[in-house]
From TrEMBL:
<dbReference type="InterPro" id="IPR006603">
    <property type="entry name" value="PQ-loop_rpt"/>
</dbReference>
<dbReference type="GO" id="GO:0036258">
    <property type="term" value="P:multivesicular body assembly"/>
</dbReference>
<dbReference type="Pfam" id="PF04193">
    <property type="entry name" value="PQ-loop"/>
</dbReference>
<dbReference type="GO" id="GO:0017128">
    <property type="term" value="F:phospholipid scramblase activity"/>
</dbReference>
<dbReference type="GO" id="GO:0042147">
    <property type="term" value="P:retrograde transport, endosome to Golgi"/>
</dbReference>
<dbReference type="GO" id="GO:0010008">
    <property type="term" value="C:endosome membrane"/>
</dbReference>
<feature type="transmembrane region" description="Helical">
    <location>
        <begin position="83"/>
        <end position="100"/>
    </location>
</feature>
<feature type="transmembrane region" description="Helical">
    <location>
        <begin position="192"/>
        <end position="210"/>
    </location>
</feature>
<dbReference type="GO" id="GO:0005769">
    <property type="term" value="C:early endosome"/>
</dbReference>
<dbReference type="GO" id="GO:0005829">
    <property type="term" value="C:cytosol"/>
</dbReference>
<keyword id="KW-0812">Transmembrane</keyword>
<feature type="transmembrane region" description="Helical">
    <location>
        <begin position="216"/>
        <end position="238"/>
    </location>
</feature>
<protein>
    <recommendedName>
        <fullName>PQ-loop repeat-containing protein 1</fullName>
    </recommendedName>
</protein>
<keyword id="KW-1133">Transmembrane helix</keyword>
<dbReference type="GO" id="GO:0032588">
    <property type="term" value="C:trans-Golgi network membrane"/>
</dbReference>
<feature type="transmembrane region" description="Helical">
    <location>
        <begin position="274"/>
        <end position="294"/>
    </location>
</feature>
<feature type="transmembrane region" description="Helical">
    <location>
        <begin position="21"/>
        <end position="43"/>
    </location>
</feature>
Length: 370
């Protein structure tokens, strides 16, 4: 860059702001732009329907753990300042979201989580299911067939447990189901702030006594990154449940994607003391944000296009099934609105003609009297 500029202009570069400093400032205040627009949108629409307040919980815990991780193992100061700004904007967002939540919200009306054992019995072979009273024998007359059947059922058994645990964990992020102790589904606002206070206090005390412990440092670091990487998951499940993006603003999605790109670029080229764990968590979060982008395009444009296409196909098929005489009759027969308009025009014309004739007769009679 310096070689391209003439030598006479190079001294003026000293008056330009430091590029690294500008990038650090942008990274610090990125949460204000990302979630500030969401606060404005909710305030303007007077409703938080379509926005998952689980995002606030996720970012609160991730930012708090990141601050405590900095105390134990200092990293890039810009990310620390970003965490502080994140807590500030999430406090405002949570306050506004709870204020404009539907008045009839009641967590007791949510569906309970499915029973683990019942779901597991649907996914494993009936020979291993606890719901089966009579279990079949695995002996098939020879050892080869018997061991093959036993091995296959063992794999299905392990896979059934994995899928069941995965679904149960995924439902924890679904606002449709009632969580244990109504976690982050409370009816009253004070419970949310009370949880945040306890979370800060408990991990603060642990950090004071265990800040020199390497195991504790790694635990809170990994936990914070894991929680933050799951940020888009509640919104994904909410949009999938609603099958609509009516109240979900595109500006929030764009801010997430831009934030992901900025974060990944910063971790790759701008930061100096960053672990590979930060990069992996950032890439995973970006993949979930791209899935939200797919949901937005699908529910916003693709489904509407398919619906309009089906409606147009039905209308065209109905028209193809009509005979030529029926089509011609529809073309030459006026509609009800046209008939009403013609009647109104005729009546209006007749009334005007009557008024003109009556005025002429009065003028004639007046002239005869004179």
């Amino acid at each position: 860059m310096l070689k391209i500029l003439p030598e006479d202009y190079r001294p003026y570069l000293e008056y330009l702001p430091d590029l690294q400093l500008c990038i650090n400032i942008i990274m610090t205040f990125t949460p204000l732009f990302s979630y500030g627009s969401t606060c404005y949108s909710i305030q303007k629409r007077q409703t938080s329907v379509g926005f998952s307040i689980d995002i606030c919980c996720t970012m609160f815990m991730a930012a708090i753990l990141r601050i405590y991780y900095y105390i134990c193992s200092p990293y890039e100061p810009t990310l620390l300042r970003q965490s502080i700004v994140m807590i500030f904007i999430q406090s405002i967002l949570l306050k506004i979201s709870l204020k404009y939540r539907p008045n009839n919200y009641d967590p007791e009306l949510l569906n309970p989580l499915p029973v683990f054992e019942n779901e597991l019995n649907l996914r494993i072979p009936r020979r291993l299911s606890s719901a089966t009273l009579e279990h079949e024998s695995y002996w098939r007359g020879d050892w080869i067939n018997s061991m093959e059947l036993l091995s296959l059922d063992t794999l299905k058994y392990i896979w059934g447990y994995f899928i069941t645990y995965f679904n149960q964990g995924l439902r924890f992020f679904d606002v449709y189901y009632k969580r244990p102790f109504n976690f982050w589904q409370w009816k009253y606002e004070r419970n949310y702030w009370l949880f945040i206070t306890w979370f800060i206090g408990i991990f603060g005390i642990l950090t004071i006594f265990l800040k020199d412990n390497l195991i504790y440092t790694n635990i809170i670091g990994m936990l914070g990154l894991f929680i933050e990487s799951l940020l888009p998951l509640p919104q994904i499940l909410l949009l999938n449940r609603l099958q609509s993006v009516k109240n979900f603003k595109i500006i929030l999605l764009l801010s997430w994607l831009c934030g992901d790109c900025t974060k990944i670029s910063y971790l790759l080229y701008g930061a100096q003391n960053i672990s590979i764990i930060f990069l992996i968590a950032g890439l995973f979060q970006m993949s979930l944000d791209f899935y939200i982008a797919y949901q937005y395009l699908k529910f916003k444009y693709l489904d509407d296009y398919q619906t309009n296409k089906e409606v147009g196909f039905v209308e065209s098929s109905d028209r193809r099934n009509q005979s030529i005489s029926e089509i011609v009759q529809q073309m030459i027969t006026p509609s009800s609105s046209e008939i009403e308009m013609d009647d109104f025009t005729e009546k209006h014309t007749d009334s005007i003609g009557n008024k003109i004739r009556s005025s002429r007769s009065r003028s004639r009679s007046g002239s005869m009297i004179v």
